[in-house]
Amino acid sequence: MQPDRYISRLRLSHFRNHTATAMDLDQRHVVLTGPNGAGKTNLLEAISLFSPGRGLRRAPFDTLAEAGGSLPWAVATTIETPDGPVDMGTGLADGGTGRRLRINGANATAIEALSDYVRILWLTPDMDGLFRGPASDRRRFLDRLVMTLIPGHGIAVASFEKAMRQRNRLLDEDGGDIAWLNAIEAQMAEHAAAIHFARIDTLGHLQALARKSVDETAFPAAQLSLARSFEMDGDDPVSSSVLEANWVQVWKDNRALDRTAGRTTKGPHLVDFQVLHQQKSMPAALCSTGEQKALLLGLVLAHARLIASMTRLVPILLMDEIAAHLDSSRRETLFCALDDLGTQCWMTGTDVESFASIGTNVQYFHVTAGLVASTG
Predict the structure, then answer these.
(1) Are residues 285 and 153 in the same domain?
(2) Cβ-based neighbours of 199, under 8 Å, separated by 6 or more
(3) CA 114 to each of CA 119, 138, 195, 287, 332: distance values in angstroms, whole numbers, following the listed order
């Protein structure tokens, strides 16, 4: 299946080790090969900046410029869509810490505007330890999945964290003003309920598609759940107002504890995203490295199908060093799944041989020291 939405043009200026990189592309998959440190991942990172957030490395925007250079970084792309091409550009803002965004030559007022034209998912080697790592990594991964489907979710998470920091400061001031604490905790509860239901809604839809992974992609299916924050926040459906009232009560009861701890000890910012290997009924953290990679791949592919079915925007996929921990049979299965999805997928690897089974639906580029050359 040929994608109806893909990157046809990519330009990097003073971005990481790419002084001036220009790529012109068609709708086929893109494979970037070359030695470690050549700049392959930097290209994926540049593309990932055309989604809300700070990209696949989560690096501060003022650290993305070419080392030793004095000029600001910039990235531009053209996305081909059924309604025609969309030109996008992003770069360091004048203040030096944030970034600016332009869409079709006009300044975008919100980063979420990108989601009207393109959705981007990625899988990197840093995510290989997701299931064994800290809960914060899994929660961030989950929120990225939710935000790709529900762009406003990122705003809710950021607003909650801002209000929580205000609460922590007030508690540190010998308890703070009670009326102000009540008001802030009510704000936190409103954002917490929005976060919870966005997560639950996304997981419900994703679970239904993940069950099909075995038949459709031959990747193991994952059983997905959230660890409970408190008794009312579990599998039983509750209204937003009930959930908000319960969070307000929890934070009111915990003020003394949180003042001593110097932080908010309960909330959606501490919920864990749990993944179980469905066929083995085994926690993902206890599975082999290869099984964990396959579970993660199956989850990302299911999420891509979910986005396509709910938004009609087939996401562009970025897969860094994707051949690692996959045998030849599973690599071939992955390439077939990507073709069936109808996406343009950008993949990196150190050698071309790892992509031998991808067939002709691919364009190859070799990357060396920030220089990119087409190889077919």
Answers:
(1) yes
(2) 142, 143, 146, 226, 268, 271
(3) 8, 24, 21, 36, 32
Place of tokens 């009207």: 116
CA distance 26 to 261: 55
pLDDT of residue 214: 53
Q: At 300, give phi and psi (nearest 5°).
A: -65, -40
Mark which of 312, 333, 365 sits at the end of a domain.
312
Predicted confidence at residue 212, as pLDDT, reads 61
pLDDT tens across 10-28, in order? 999 999 999 999 999 999 9
Domain shared by 320 and 307, yes or no:
no
**What's residue 259's pLDDT?**
94
**Angstrom distance (rounded) from CA 217 to CA 222:** 13
> Whole-model pTM?
0.92
User: Does residue 256 form part of some domain?
Assistant: yes
**84 to 11, 106, 192, 246, 321: CA distances (angstroms):** 19, 17, 38, 48, 32
Q: Which of 31, 127, 93 is nearest to 344 (CA)?
A: 31
**Which portions of the chain are predicted below pLDDT 70?**
174-176, 211-218, 230-237
The alpha carbon of residue 318 and the mean position of all alpha carbons in its chain are separated, in whole angstroms, by 10
Residues in Cβ contact with 92 at an 8 Å cutoff, skipping those fewer than 6 apart: 61, 62, 64, 65, 72, 73, 74, 98, 99, 100
> What is the pLDDT, as a whole number, of residue 31?
97
Asked whether residue 257 falls in the same domain as residue 158, the answer is yes
- pLDDT tens digit sequence for 84-100: 999 999 999 887 778 99
Cβ atoms < 10 Å from Cβ of 355:
19
Residue 68's pLDDT is 84
CATH number at residue 62: 3.40.50.300
Domain that holds residue 156: 129-312
Q: How far is CA 210 from CA 24, 340, 341, 356, in A?
A: 34, 16, 14, 27
For the chain, what is the domain count?
A: 2
